[in-house]
C-alpha cells in the first residue's frame, strides 16, 4: 500500500447501498480516497464525486477485485461469505494481501477479515466504527491479549520487516509471555511495552537474544542479523534521480542499488523517488516507483533551484534542464528538513542522491 489511503466499498442490497454512500462520504472526510460500488439496479445513473458506480457482472467480479489486490483496501457491506468467495483466488499472505473488512447493512458491526495489522484493516475498522457508531469486532490475538504486535509497530512507524518468519516467531513468543529485546538507532516516544526489554546497543541486544531467544533491531544499516533478531528497516530516504531519456527501469534500479550499497543503505529504506518535471513521464522512473510502492514526485526547475547549495554543479545539465544538479536538488526538495546522506553519484545513464528524513519511533 502507498501513502494514499484507498478503499473500495462494495454493497449488494438497497439498504446496503444507502450505507455505502454514507460511509463513502465519512471516509472521504477523514482522508480516504473512496470508490463506491453496488449492483446495477442500485447504482447511480449520473456520475459524481461519490456516486455508487455499478459493479461488474457477477462472473467478472472476482477478476475485477484482482486488478486492485494488494493496492487498495476493500469493505464489503453484506454477508461475509460473499466477500470470502470473491477474494479467495487472491489471498496469499498478510504482508501482500489487501486489507479486507465486512460490515452488516445495519451498521452494527464491522469486522477486519484480512491483513488486520500490516495492511491496517484493524485500524480502518476502528475508524469506520467511530464514524457510523458501529462496533469493531477484533479477533487478532495480540489485540485481544493486549500484547505488543511487531507488525503493528512496523506499520505505524513505516518500517519494513526484514524477515517475516522471525517476525511471526517473535509474535508467538510474546503471546507465550516471553520477553524480547529491543534496540533502536532512533529516538522513540510513547509507553514502552511491558514484554520488550530495552537494550543500549546492538551488541547488548545480541547478547540478550542469545540468552532469551529473540530481539528487535530498528536500523537501516546493511549488516547481517544473527538468528533470532528481527531487523525493522525505516522508510526514511528521499532519493533524487536524474537519467537520460529512455533509460530502462532495470538499469535505473541496478545503478541505484549499487549506489545505496556503497553508502551502507538499503533499497527498502526508500520512501519516495523524486526528479524534475521534465521526467514526470519517464517510464523507467515511474516503473521503479511502482515496483517499490513509493510515490514519484516531480518538481519544476524553479522549485529545485530554491534548495540551496549543492555539492556539484553542471552547466551542461543546467543548459538542458534549467538546473545545475537534478538528483541532489530533487532529493532535497522532497525532504527539505532532512539530512543529506550522499550527493550526486553516477551510473550508466543515471545519477542519484539521497536525503534522510528525521525518524522518531512511536509506541501506542
How would you describe this structure to a colleague?
With 364 residues, this protein is an alpha/beta fold. The protein has three domains: 6-139, Rossmann fold (3-Layer(aba) Sandwich); 150-234, Udp-n-acetylmuramoylalanyl-d-glutamate--2,6- Diaminopimelate Ligase, Chain: A, domain 1 (3-Layer(aba) Sandwich); 237-356, CobE/GbiG C-terminal domain (Nucleotidyltransferase, domain 5, 2-Layer Sandwich). Helices cover 34% and strands 25% of the residues. The protein has 13 helices and 19 strands. A seven-stranded mixed beta sheet has the order 3-2-1-4-5-6-7, with helices on both faces. Strands 8-13-12-9-11 form a five-stranded mixed beta sheet. Strand 6, helix 4 and strand 7 (135-136) form a beta-alpha-beta unit. Helix 1 (14-29) packs across helix 4 and helix 9 (249-262) packs across helix 10 (283-292). The radius of gyration is 23 Å and the shape is globular.
Can you describe this structure in just a few lines?
This protein is α/β, with parallel strands linked by helices. It is built from 13 helices and 19 strands. The protein has a seven-stranded mixed sheet, sandwiched between helices. The chain has a five-stranded mixed sheet with strand order 8-13-12-9-11. It has a five-stranded mixed sheet with strand order 16-15-14-18-17.
Amino acid at each position: 500500500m502507498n501513502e494514499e489511503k484507498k478503499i473500495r466499498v462494495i454493497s449488494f442490497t438497497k439498504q446496503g447501498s444507502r450505507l455505502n454512500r454514507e460511509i463513502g462520504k465519512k471516509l472521504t472526510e477523514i482522508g480516504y480516497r473512496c470508490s463506491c460500488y453496488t449492483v446495477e439496479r442500485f447504482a447511480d445513473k449520473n456520475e459524481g464525486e461519490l456516486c455508487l458506480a455499478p459493479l461488474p457482472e457477477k462472473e467478472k467480479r472476482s477478476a475485477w477485485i484482482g486488478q486492485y489486490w494488494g493496492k487498495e483496501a476493500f469493505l464489503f457491506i453484506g454477508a461475509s461469505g460473499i466477500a470470502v468467495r470473491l477474494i479467495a483466488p487472491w489471498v496469499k499472505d498478510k504482508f501482500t494481501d489487501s486489507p479486507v473488512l465486512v460490515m452488516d447493512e445495519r451498521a452494527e458491526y464491522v469486522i477486519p477479515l484480512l491483513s488486520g495489522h500490516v495492511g491496517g484493516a484493524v485500524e480502518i475498522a476502528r475508524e469506520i466504527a467511530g464514524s457510523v457508531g458501529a462496533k469493531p469486532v477484533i479477533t487478532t490475538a495480540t489485540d485481544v491479549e493486549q500484547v505488543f504486535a511487531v507488525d503493528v509497530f512496523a506499520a505505524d512507524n513505516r518500517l519494513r520487516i526484514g524477515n517475516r518468519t522471525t517476525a511471526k516467531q517473535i509474535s508467538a513468543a510474546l503471546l507465550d509471555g516471553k520477553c524480547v529485546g529491543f534496540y533502536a538507532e532512533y529516538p522513540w516516544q510513547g509507553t514502552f511495552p511491558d514484554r520488550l526489554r530495552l537494550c543500549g546497543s546492538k551488541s547488548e541486544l545480541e547478547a540478550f537474544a542469545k540468552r532469551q531467544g529473540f530481539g528487535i533491531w530498528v536500523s537501516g544499516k546493511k549488516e547481517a542479523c544473527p538468528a533470532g533478531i528481527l531487523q525493522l528497516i525505516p522508510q526514511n530516504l528521499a532519493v533524487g534521480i536524474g537519467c537520460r531519456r529512455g533509460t530502462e527501469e532495470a538499469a535505473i534500479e541496478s545503478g541505484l542499488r549499487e549506489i545505496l550499497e556503497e553508502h551502507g543503505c538499503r533499497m527498502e529504506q526508500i520512501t519516495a523517488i523524486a526528479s524534475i518535471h521534465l521526467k514526470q513521464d519517464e517510464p523507467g522512473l515511474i516503473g521503479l516507483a511502482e515496483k517499490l510502492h513509493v510515490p514519484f514526485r516531480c518538481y519544476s526547475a524553479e522549485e529545485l533551484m530554491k534548495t540551496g547549495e549543492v555539492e556539484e554543479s553542471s552547466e551542461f545539465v543546467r543548459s538542458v534542464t534549467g538546473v545545475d544538479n537534478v538528483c541532489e536538488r530533487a532529493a532535497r526538495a522532497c525532504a527539505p528538513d532532512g539530512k543529506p546522506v550522499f550527493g550526486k553519484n553516477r551510473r550508466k545513464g543515471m545519477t542519484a542522491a539521497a536525503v534522510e528524513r528525521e525518524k522518531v519511533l512511536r509506541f501506542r
